[in-house]
Structures are given as structure tokens and as C-alpha cells.
Amino acid sequence: MNRKLFLFTLILIGFSLTNIAQENKMENPFFNKWSTPFETPPFNSIKPEHFLPAFNEGVRLEKAEIDAIINNKEKPTFKNTIIAMEKTGEFLTKVNRVFFGLNSANTNDELQKIARTVTPILSKHRDDINLNEQLFEKIKTIYKEKESLKLSQEELTTLENYYSNFVRSGANLNSEGKDKLRKINQELSMLGLRFSENLLKETNAIALVIDKQEDLNGLPDDVKNAAKELAAAKGYQDKWAFSLQKPSFIPFLTYSKIRDLREKVFKSYINRGNNNNEADNKNVIARIVSLRVDKANLLGYKTHADFVLEKNMAKNAEAVYKFLLELWEPALKRAKMESADLQNLVYKDGAKFKIAAWDWWFYAERLKKEKYDLDEAMLRPYFKMENVRTGAFEVASKLFGIKFIPRNDIQVYHSDVEVFEVQEADGKHIGIFYSDYYPRDGKRSGAWASGFRSQSNIESKFITPLVYNVGNFSKPTKDKPALMSIDEVNTLFHELGHGLNSLFQNSVYPGARFMPRDFVELPSQIMEHWALEPAVLKMYAKHYQTGDVIPNELISKLENSRLFNQGFETVEYLAASFLDMDWHTLTDNTEKDVPLFEKESLTKIGLIPEIEARYQTTNFGHITGGYSAGYYSYIWAAVLDADAFQAFKETSLFDKKYADAFREYILAKGGTEDPMISYKKFRGREPKVESLLKKRGLN
Ligand SMILES: [Zn+2]
After folding, report:
1. Residues in Cβ contact with 165 at an 8 Å cutoff, skipping those fewer than 6 apart
2. Structural domain boundaries enclosing 122
3. Distance from the CA of 421 to the center of ligand 1, in angstroms?
4. Of 365, 421, 495, 521, catalytic
5. What are the pLDDT digits (tens) for 407-446?
6. At what angle do helices 109-130 and 175-204 cross, to 10 degrees?
């Protein structure tokens, strides 16, 4: 090839490469303005191959934005530093929110591979910002002058949050310390990802395939039908399959009369992540805990819990343990009484075995039937998913005057997803709400709320939120709609509460908001109180076939059984909370023997063998997913929500004054000031623990 031709070819290749890149940019929705309604993500045209280029561009842009702040030669001010920081990263946030939303709710091999590629890049990018000395110097300068800057309360909070976030991210470390921290963060980010991938694999596993009619003994037709559909979907013809997703295995434990099959299914459930296979989480979590000790020490804290709790209402580990122990004793006492009642049923049958953890659901269901003439099968027909969701919407409407309008013109990432526009009573747009309620292989277990976009109002540019609720509820079968259990009904209301919190947020700066973990469950858990109020049930609990409103007789049975099994539920929850705290109050970084540590932790509190902790270390997604030293939060916040709901009980269920105050101080402004101050503004006083004890029958 002569030289000229060679050059010419090079230029041609160069041209065509640019063209491809240009074309790709044109086709990649992240590089274009979204012309969808309310600029919702255009899911129909987002493809997995769009993410990596978009992530790269997002990182590049944010870097450039940060550099511009650093290189600004003017004296640092709130405007040229803090507001400027608030405006950075718009592109990256957009990609991030869509990608990680999908990776949790609708993942596949391709997305998981991308997650593994981008996670270390994002971890490094975060550290590049948080550990940048010049940037921190600027923030520190403004922070030192904060008293003289005449900032609004919200601006002051934003500034303080920035300063404290930088310090907590290692900004004060020397360069050796910073290097160490970077390495720890890199490794932690990958371990967290691996933990959740393993857990997803283990939860999707088929725990049991039944091929003989007699092994179905005790199972109601609905349960059999769902199991048959699952088996068919997994390639087993004319068999019945059960997975480790709750809507599948809980009914099996509740109804199966075959004790060793219950044992098999239950053990598969609690051993998720602990099967010595390629999805084993023991080493993963042991390493995570050890690195958390290193990180806490590096940042000047004795334990990971000290590091986390400093920002929570509880403030320190002592306060958490003290609170948990206060509840533990009465709860365990009640659980032992419940256990004795169940044991009596075993003896009554003429059997001699000691009741075990895999027997609890089965005998509890029988006892409930005997004592209250009530069972799940009587209730489910009144809790069709669409009716329940309408009920939750109606509660929100009655409290806050808002409307939920179905929108079929907004794109979704899966056919199970439904979309609603949320409006004020006068029609003013508030935001978009997506619901995605049924389990599938690409969805992690549990239920959660988050969003594709958060509210903000920087420089009077009001951005409205895009909020979603994801769950793993009982899904429709060929011949029946989705009929929910009471537990699922509560969860649907719970997640809508988180959703309302995001929809109602009203602050200028996202950086002003910090909802402590043990406060953030107040908006969600308070919704559960309305779910089962008789007056509310009459609004939405209608028979899926006849449309008849739930009869009074059934409501009173529900009311009478309100305290049933509360010992068990509180104990299994508290046990997991203690386990979480024990892991995160470790002061040494040796990697522990996970089963041994867990056993010691649960023995120490005197957990009885017929109850297992709600999660085991190897499948405790909360402690790798943002609730480390934070699982206690649910019951901590329960003091607040029980006390807050009492305000409505004492006045009226939809009292306007309290509803307005709740929206204003907790939902709209919550997190922009000290939570206790917000709470007192709503309630007029501090919360009292009595309402919680009464609600659980522990007083
Ligand atoms: Zn929650």
C-alpha cells in the first residue's frame, strides 16, 4: 500500500468511525432531550447497549462541571460553589436512576454485566469528587463563614450537609488515608453488587417440584394452580413447583400437611446464600463487615454502627440496643405463649414432635381458624390488587386532596408496570407514580420505593418527581385476578407512603434533604394504620366477583385477631435487628465464621429454636443495601407512626388539620431539619412509646 492510499484509508476509517459515533449518539435516548410526557424515561427506545456510552458521557460531563467550579478564581461563595455543585451531574443522575432502577426490578445477564463494569467506575468517580482537596477547601471556607452569610434555613442545611458529607467521605484524610479509602470503597461496591446478584439467583431457585398428587395434601386449589403455572413456566409439565419468592413458599408453609416437605422448603429459604455453591454469600458478607470496620477506623470511628448512627435519630449503638432490649423481653414472653398454644395443637393431633420453625405458619393458620374463625382464604377475595391500590389512593386523596389519573401514554419497562399522574385537587401536576407489583426472575425480592427523578427547585426551575413502587405480591393466575394477603396489603400501603413522601417533597435544593433511616419509615408505616381501619376497608375491600363490600362480621374477626401472632412477628424481626447490630458493632476486622457468629448472636438474646430470625446473614439484603446498622429503624419509626396515627384516631381518621401538618412538616420538608423538630411541629409534642406497645399488645 502506498503512503497516500494508506493515509486516505485512515481518513476514511476515521470518518466512518465518527459517523458511527454520531449515529449512536442520535439513537441513544440518553443523548437527546426526552420529548415524552413529563420527560419520563422513553423505555421503548432504551436498550442495554445505550447505558455504557451514557455512563461514560455522564462521568465526563460531571467531571468537567466540577473542574469548572474548582478552577473558578473568584472567592468561593454559596452560589459559585454549593449551588453550582447542586447543578452538577444532571446527565449522570438520569442514567444512574434508570439503570439501577432496572437492575433491581427487571434485570438480566446483560444489565448485570454492565453493572459490574460501571460500579467500580462510579465508585472511583464519587471518590474523585469527595476526596478532591481544592473542592473541599472551597466548601470549608464557606462553611467557616456560614454565620455571616445571611443564608436561609434551607441553604444553611444544604451547606452543613455538604460539609459533613465531605468529611464523612474522607476529605480530611491525608493522601495515604485517601488511597486506602479508595481501595476499600472500590472493593465494597463490587462486593455489594455480588451479594445481591447471588441473592437473586438463590431466591429464584426452585425449592420444590411435586409430581405426586398426595404431596399436595392440604394445599388449596389457588395455591395448586399457581404452583402448576410456575412449574410450566420453568419447563416442568404437569408438575407443581415452589420457588423461594414469598407468594410461592409462604402459602406452601401455611397449608402443606406434609411436614418433611415444609421442612425442605423452609430450610431452602433460610439457607439462601449459604449453600457452598458459586452463589454463596458467606465470604462476601464476612469481607464486607471487615472492610466496614477498616473504613470506620480510618474515618475516626470505633465501629461501623458509630459511623452510621451518628446521622440517625438514635445517635448511637447504646441507644439502639437499649430500645431493642426493652421490646425484646415482652415480645419473647408473648412468642413463648404463642409457641405453647401451637404445641398444644400438635399434641391434640396425637403427634409427639416438638414444634419447629417450619411448623409455625401451618399451626398458626389452624389456630387462627379455631380461635377467630378466620383464615386467609376468606379474606383474599376482598383484596384484589386493583381494589387495594385504589383504596390506598383514596386514603391519600382523602388526606391530601390529591388525584391519581391512569396514564396509558407513558412508557414502561415491563408490561406489569402501570402509570398514574398525581395531581392536586385543582388539577396542578405533582408527579408521576409507577406501580410494578408482581414477582419475576429479573426482580430482587422484597418491596421498595424509589424514583427516576427527584423534586428540586434550583434557581426557580421546578422539577417534578417520577416515583415508583416495586413489590413481589401474589400475581394473577389463569382463572383469578391478583388476590392479596393481608401482609401484602400492608406492604402496598407502606410503599405508597414512601411514594407520597417523594411526590410531596418541596425543597429548593436536593442537598438540603437528608431523611435519617430511622425517620424515613414514618411516612410509609403510618399508611399501614389506615389500610385495615374498618371505615377504610369499607371503601376498598370489595369481593372480586360479586363486588360486595367486606361484611362487618369479617371486619370484626380481623379486629379480634389483631394481636394474633404479634409475639412471633416482633421476635423474628427483633432477632434480625440484633444480628445486624452485632455485625456492625464489631471493633476488629478479622473475617468471621458467619454461621458461628450468627449462632452466637442469636443465642445471646435467647431466641427460641422454633423461631428463626427474619433474615439470615447470607440473605439479609437490607444490611448490604443501605440498612446496615439500620434494620432497627422500622421499629424505631414505629414509635413515631403509632403515635402519629393516634392523632388521627383521637380526632378523625382524615382530620384536615393533622393531614395538612403531616404533609407540610413531615412529607414536604422532612429531612431539611432535625427530625424531632419536624415531628413536634406536626404533633405538638414528642412521641410517646405507649401507642406502639398497645398496638402490638406488648404493654
Ligand atoms: Zn419502608
Report:
1. 130
2. 25-198
3. 22
4. 495
5. 999 999 999 999 999 999 999 999 999 999 999 999 999 9
6. 160
Cα(48)–Cα(351) distance, rounded to whole angstroms?
56
Residue 492, domain member (yes or no): yes
Does the active-site annotation cover 370?
no
Average pLDDT over residues 61-65: 98
Total of domains in the chain: 3
Distance from Cα 447 to the centre of ligand 1, integer Å: 8
CA of 161 to the centre of ligand 1 (A): 23
- CA-based torsion, 335, 336, 338, 339: positive or negative: positive
Is residue 324 within 8 A of residue 578, CB to CB? The reply is yes
| Number of Cβ atoms within 10 Å of the Cβ of 547 | 8
What is the gyration radius of the CA atoms in the chain, in angstroms?
A: 27
Distance between CA atoms of 435 and 433, rounded to whole angstroms? Answer: 7
Residues 82 and 133 in one domain: yes
**pLDDT, tens only, 663-675:** 999 999 888 989 9
Task: Let me know whether 262 and 194 are in one domain.
Answer: no
The three-state DSSP-derived secondary structure of 240-260 is: EEEECCHHHHHHHHHHCCCHH
How far is C-alpha 435 from the geometric centre of its chain's CA atoms? 14
Q: Which of 41, 190, 72 is nearest to 122 (CA)?
A: 190
Are 404 and 477 part of one and the same domain?
yes
